[in-house]
Amino acid sequence: MKKKIVITGSGGFLGGRIAAYYERDYNVIRVGHRNLDITDEEAVGEYIKDHNPDVVIHCAAISNTRVCEENRLLSEAVNLRGSVNMAKACRENGSRLLFMSSDQVYGGSRQKGPNKETDEVPLINIYGAHKKQAEDKILEILPEAVCLRLSWMYDFPVRGLKSNSNLLTNLLSSMVQNRPIRLSASDFRGITWVQEVVKNLEPAMELPGGVYNFGGESTLSAYEIGSRVFRMLDKNGNRGSLVVPDETGAGDNPRNLTMDLGKLKSHGISFSETVEGFSRCLETSPEYVYALIGESIVEF
Question: Is residue 290 situated within a structural domain?
């Protein structure tokens, strides 16, 4: 008998791809805000009890950081209280919970290198604060829950699945329109191909309870990453450099969202380094890139 998985936020960029990938080998139940209000504790409890999943992958969130800053009560209701409600329901039902957290919990980091899960970091934005508070409360309620800190993700557009603005599509748009793209020279972070996140969720279901960094490693700035990926796309060097450094916020206070994956690797799960991940992604769809920019980036 197939294991049953409930995926919240299944209409979103990540949740939709998780559902599409696992529906062949698992009994996947897609959950969106139209059929479950996660801020309603009683409704969440009844839903999980009725469907009795083996695993809940909780992706539902208000992930736009600006929206969270402007509407803190909404962020608290969805990102914090909704996640706590899910943990309580999973505890009562005996379901495994995988909670999608964020590298934004490291927004106030002043570390010189990649951040570890145990580092004490000031919380400087509402989204990151509510994700961190949700992690703490979830593990208090359900110690065997797995909290995964994700980075900014990207993918090619996929028919029938939600597409978000991401670094890959932004770079391709820049090339098609021959317009510059500004990327922060003081924003250091990993950026992850979403398909690696999706595939690594299966072994993550077997992780011991706790918090894990879960995404591509990097020590580069967004500008450095974008410049290297641009050179992959502009293989023949015909377009010069359309990637422009944004120096806003540079100086003594760079933002460090980079993640140390040592803990995750100790359990046999790994991700491509950020630039390598872009290379792997591009190799999967060279025809798509060729159709957009009229140049081959790999032989096909």
Answer: no
pLDDT of the residue at 235: 79
Length of the chain: 300
**What range does the domain containing 205 cover?**
4-153+190-213
Is residue 293 domain-resident? Answer: no
CA pair distance 264, 18, nearest whole angstrom = 20
Is 72 exposed, middle or buried, given 0-12, 13-18 or 19+ CB atoms closer than 10 A? middle
Return d(Cα 84, Cα 55) in angstroms, integer. 16
Query: What's the domain count of the chain?
Result: 1
Residue 146, φ and ψ in degrees, nearest 5? -115, 120
pLDDT tens-digit readout, 53-111: 999 999 999 999 999 999 999 999 999 999 999 999 999 999 999 999 999 999 999 88
36 inside domain: yes
Amino acid letter at 165? S
Query: What is the CATH number for 205?
Result: 3.40.50.720
Q: Closest Cα partner for 260 from 121, 154, 143?
A: 121
pLDDT tens digit sequence for 167-206: 999 999 998 898 999 999 999 999 999 999 999 999 999 9
Whole-number mean pLDDT of the chain? Answer: 93
- Contacts with 195 (C-beta within 8 Å, 6 or more apart), sequence order: 17, 21, 155, 281
Confirm whether 237 is domain-assigned.
no
- pLDDT at residue 244, rounded to an integer: 94
